[in-house]
Design goal:
Shape: globular
Largest sheet: none
Number of strands: 0
Structural class: mainly alpha
Distance between the termini: 23 Å
Helix content: 55-70%
Number of helices: 17
Length: 444
């Protein structure tokens, strides 16, 4: 069964195969028009129409993503095909990096090579073609999500490479790459706040193997990541103080308050903003006064469960959900008439109980793996926590104008896909083992 996966050509051929399948899946999206925030951020943003404005372009939160839009415009103007091609290329790169991350992690716990490649391949393939990724790939402006995810994955892979590197110079170069990737990830989209937490967890579980002394020997890179984290916090929290009357129409679906375009001359119209302000001076977080932190947190319990349901059964997907807000922990929120959801929203307490069971399973797997650090249980626990850590900037108590967007689960979904593949793979292996032990009349 593993003969195919053990071939020396498997990894490169698989990546090519996955790329071709992904292109085929998204082949009908290249002419999809600009939608929603694509208008003010890309189509109507004159700042992006001259690469001579590079200083003004990159001097923004998400400035690196904006720069890629400017390069797109310089090459093909407002021809959407070029923008979609870049988005798809980024997504394929991310799926390839996801394959490498899962493979490297399984190798660290000494899983057999054939099994490691099989689990990594199916996890990456699901990441590449699952419908939940549609918004991050085809909604052009959400290159922000996929591009930040690319640098997030790259940073973690460089950290793993540095841990194996021999020689201080090579190790230092790789750690520098980690910091640069973190920087580029942040300037693509701020969800990358969580990268240091994921790196610390990964180091503790798979590289240092619980040795705090081993982790402390990496203090230079941890200090650098801490400094960058402090800088990113300053860059996003200090500009807060925008308007307290945010609406879905006026918010630029930005996480923490980062102005994307700083003066009105960058737009053809004010996009509904008050005089003297652009819609991108609004804060889409913190200062959302119409939603309390408690209401947002309770709603997010249901949102996370709904994300999991969409990952299991991607039906009734929507670009702009009218998701019901929760007013209490034990009161089921009521959806507006005509809202297409896959199931009625339960009281947030029930969703919280489901999430506690899942995180409890991760804790159990971690405790179980203490006796055998070289086990798939430790990898499973990591990817469960990966899902929740990466979602935390948008699914916490910090209000954001919109409760749910499918692109927010883009990178976190890798955790779900790995667990799904691991469960199915284990079940199939047990079935084959049982059939071999009890071959039936044909084998007598």
């Amino acid at each position: 069964m593993d003969r195919l996966f053990l071939s020396r050509w498997f990894s490169p051929l698989f990546v090519i195969f996955m790329a071709l399948v992904t292109v085929a899946v998204y082949s009908n999206t290249f002419t999809a028009a600009f939608q929603y925030d694509d208008g003010p951020i890309i189509r109507d943003n004159h700042l992006l129409r001259d690469l001579g404005n590079i200083r003004e372009i990159v001097n923004n939160i998400r400035g690196f993503t904006l720069l890629t839009f400017a390069v797109n415009y310089a090459i093909g103007g407002l021809d959407v095909r070029g923008y979609h091609a870049v988005n798809l290329a980024v997504h394929i790169i991310n799926a390839s990096l996801a394959y490498l991350l899962v493979l490297a992690t399984l190798r660290l716990v000494k899983v057999q090579e054939g099994s490691s490649r099989r689990l990594a391949a199916f996890s990456a393939l699901l990441f590449a073609v699952h419908p939940i990724q549609t918004q991050a790939v085809t909604y052009i402006v959400q290159r922000m999500e996929s591009l930040s995810g690319m640098f997030y994955l790259l940073a973690l892979l460089l950290f793993i490479g540095a841990s194996r590197a021999s020689g201080a110079i090579k190790r230092g170069a790789l750690y520098t790459g980690v910091a640069l990737s973190y920087l580029l990830a942040f300037y693509s989209k701020e969800i990358t706040y969580t990268l240091p937490a994921v790196i610390v967890l990964y180091d503790y579980l798979f590289i240092a193997r619980g040795s705090l002394g081993e982790m402390l020997r990496k203090w230079p890179v941890y200090a650098l990541l801490a400094l960058l984290f402090a800088y990113f916090t300053y860059m996003t929290v200090v500009p807060l103080g925008g308007f307290n009357d945010l609406s879905e129409e006026s918010a630029a679906e930005s996480i923490y308050a980062a102005p994307i375009v700083k003066d009105l001359s960058g737009l053809e119209d004010g996009a509904g903003a008050p005089a003297g302000k652009t819609r991108h001076d609004y804060t889409a977080g913190f200062n959302v006064s119409r939603i309390s932190p408690e209401e947002y947190l309770y709603t997010q319990f249901n949102v996370i469960v709904y994300y999991l349901a969409l990952l299991a059964v991607p039906a009734n997907q929507n670009l702009d959900y009218d998701f019901p807000w929760a007013s209490g922990l034990f009161k089921a929120p009521e959806a507006a008439p005509g809202t297409a959801l896959n199931f009625p929203m339960p009281p947030p307490a029930l969703s919280l109980a489901i999430l506690l069971v899942i995180t409890g399973a991760a804790a159990y797997l971690l405790l179980r793996s203490r006796k055998d650090p070289d086990s798939k249980a430790r990898v499973a626990a990591f990817f469960i926590l990966w899902f929740f850590i990466i979602l935390s900037p948008t699914s916490s108590f910090i209000p954001i104008a919109d409760a749910i967007y499918e692109h927010r689960v883009y990178l976190a979904s890798l955790g779900y896909f790995f667990i799904f593949v691991l469960v199915v793979d284990s079940a199939v292996n047990r079935l084959f083992s049982r059939l071999q032990r009890n071959p039936g009349p044909e084998g007598v």
